[in-house]
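Can you give me the bound-state structure? Components:
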Amino acid sequence: MPEQRKTFHQELDEIRDEIVRLAALVGEFIPRGTEVLLANDMHGAQELIEADDEIDALTLRVEEQCYHVLALQQPMASDLRAIVTAVWLTGELERSGDLMVNVAKAARRIYGASLPARLRGLIERMSEEASRLMKYAIDAYVERNASLGAALDDIDDGLDQLHRDYIEAIFECHATHDLGLQAAVQLALIGRYYERIGDHAVNIGHRVQYMVTGWLPEQTGAARLHARAGEGNGDQGEGAPPAP
Amino acid sequence: MSPGPLGAVAVGPVVVLVGAAAVLGALVGGLVVRERARGRHRVRLEQVAARLGVATGAPSANGDDELAALERHVRAIRAEADAAADARSLLQQALDTLPQAILIMDSSGLVLERNAASEAFVAARHADALVEAAVGELVDSALRGEPSSRTVELFGPPRRVVVITTTPVATGSEPAAVAVVDDITERRRLEAVRTDFVANISHELKTPVGAIGLLAETMQAEDDPAVTARLAERVQAEAVRVGRTIEDLLELSRIELGQLSELEPVAVADVVTEAVARIRPAAEQAGITIDADAVDEGLVVAGEHRQLISALSNLIDNAVKYSDAGGSVEVGASGHHGEVVLTVADHGIGIPARDLERVFERFYRVDQARSRQTGGTGLGLAIVRHVVANHHGSVEVESRLGEGSLFTLRLPVARSTVVAPPEPHDATHPLPERL
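Here's the bound-state model for the whole set.
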């Protein structure tokens, strides 16, 4: 029996290592996709789109590993939360990779368009901020740091603000005829992709909180709902999930 | 027989003899057992000595010779082990000095040995995790007896290029593999600098010379004086352009050689005033204002007046060229902890992050089209870098695309100079807001 538990924990470690590798691939996609966009690099765009297959394959492999452990080891408590978190994380990371593929595809759509320097600068900054958030998210996961996981929500405010500035700058450039409508629309979508990557990093932070403490931010909302239902029924909201 | 005073039966001489014989027998038995035990120990000692290859000579009666020989041998083994540990430590220290990461792994993927540089690739995160994964894959190949190599490009930031090489080795009967991770980022950068330099210098010199030749040929066949005059103007412009490039190249070459004619106390206020005066006409023509802070007269650096003016005017010229009409350039100078800090800030087009570390290279241009339009030679920032190196200073750049750039020159204060305290100076002449 002790031997079996050792194997189980080795499997958990392997899953964590694979998640770290998946995150590293996605982390590389962010500056790489940004460079493709800013350098009008069509060859690089094609390579990035093809490289997404590696992320997809790794995602499936990690998920399979998780299901295998769930089925054969029937983990409990924190071990179960670690596996469930790993399954969640694969989804968040794979989607983040897809968003950078979208950036590369958008770069192809606006090939040849001249991007005003201000927009280029804001794209660089959004990319740096998205990379930073993703790094923190993975640091929180590896270190099982629930506080850092929780802080990501606030750290993401910086990226949200940059996104707002960027949209404003697109409007200004379009108004001054520095930017055509087609390019403006694509650039607005690109900004949204970076902003979404930030949201995925925040989601990873929430999942890390769940892995470490067993609590999810959504439980606060669920508790409020139960409380309201309790008030409506005249009881005191018994059975509502506890607040953290 | 009647009982004795202690209740014992009175014993006769026979009983006493029997008792004495029993005691004697017990003593002899004990001695025999002890001797047998010693004999066994001696045999074991001889066996151990034989196994260790220790020549003990003729066995002694009590085994002391064997023990002494064994002790000598154990000491010899210990000395050998210490020497091996010292050699291993020396080897480890030598490995730790290598910039390449070196890992020796067994067939189960366990790291047997590694050096300090490999730390980044064990239980790694972020981009290093990809290197670790690639090492694992290549080690698998090496364990199958196939040496492998792969180049991994990492986008970072910072961007890096590493080459991983694995080679099969053997530890006893077990297969093992050595992995070497070599960071070739700097080598790649230098190769790019060299290649770009050769391409750029030939372009910078060949283009105007070719244009002059072509224009001269056209002039020869032209009868219309108006067209000839226009062509002559173009020839003159191209000649000025190539002349400027050659002039900058010569200046750069002189500065590169570190030929400081004389290190003399130079008033920073004079350098700022002259550099600004040199660029102001061009700035006014472009509709750009240059705001220079009043500089403390006591601020003095040890250097060459001409080179310092050349460096600062190049920075101001650059700031003006890459600013839009109606913009402004701020020039500041202050004393900070034994050094003079000169800053030139603009609110122009800025520099992309990926070009920041290359802008000081000769002929490197962020935007080829725009920099040629502005009439730059592509040598200005290279001159700045070499001037500050000659003066034991440093130059830094911070920039954001679309927001502007800030160049900061740091030069050591001349030793004999008394510099005004930094705090009041800062309050009076604040630096331009940092980006």
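A couple of observations. Chain A has one domain: 2-213. Residues 236-244 of chain A have pLDDT under 50 and may be disordered.
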